[in-house]
Amino acid sequence: MKHKIAFFDMDGTLYQTENDIIQDSALEAIDMLRKEGYTVCAATGRPLNQMKLILERVHFDYYVLINGSYILDKDFNEISAYPIKKENVEKLVKLCADEKYGLMFHFGDATYIYNDFYPMYYFCKYCNVLDSLFYDPNQAFHKRHRVFNAVVLTKDDQKLKHFMEDHPELRKDLINVKTDGFCYDIFNADNDKAKGIEAILEKEGLTWKDTICFGDSTNDIHMLEKADIGVAMGNASDYVKSFANFSTTTTYDNGIYNAVKKILEEEKD
Length: 269
Hints:
Blueprint: E1 5-8, H1 24-35, E2 39-43, H2 52-55, E3 62-65, E4 70-73, E5 78-81, H3 86-99, E6 102-106, E7 111-115, H4 117-126, E8 133-135, E9 149-154, H5 158-166, E10 170-174, E11 182-188, H6 193-204, E12 211-215, H7 221-226, E13 229-232, H8 238-241, E14 246-247, H9 255-268
Parallel strand pairs: 1-2, 1-12, 2-3, 7-8, 12-13, 13-14
Antiparallel strand pairs: 3-4, 4-5, 6-7, 6-9, 9-11, 10-11
GO molecular function: magnesium ion binding; phosphatase activity
InterPro entries: Cof (IPR000150), HAD-like_sf (IPR036412), HAD_sf (IPR023214)
Keywords: Hydrolase
């Protein structure tokens, strides 16, 4: 066996977000990898509380959550964590209050809406992520708990752009969902799935040469590029595909199964 560990993005890769489907063929592919001795891991932008529907069908050996900022083992014990600094969280809360931006925070195992409850609620409903979703009109939960990610919703993002320019230690990623305006993820600038994966590789005594990664979006680019085999889904953009070793069929057309079958057949040769 040439490779030893595989990481799967969830939305648009393993999981069909809009209809809550994981194809049976994808679950079969994961079983195929495990039978060959692979460690199988999740690498997602989701926090743990937004994994419930997925975990009803498949469990993983490790979890790279919230785009690499919160890493857990199979028993959900913390391996590494990279929260946003409290001072930056406070500044973001003030910005969103002043500019009437929608604001939501991921705290690892819970999600709290601060501003624009219903737009944020409908966003979460569309993504099938209503578990452990709360409303904090006092905007105080972050004072006692670590923030790993903010979601900001706005029709005019100019002030947000200026805020990000003044805080280069943060980055924003546009979320490609149907919203009335712009929706952004905000993280520490040096956090991404590849950083979370490296914490697991170190723990397992492995390297990127042992690694296969599957993804479809811009937040998967770094891990697709660093993996010995990076697999882009057929529904990925041409830009994302350019960072992968090859692309498979879409998540709606047995993409995971077709890629895993191809890899395992080539490893036997």
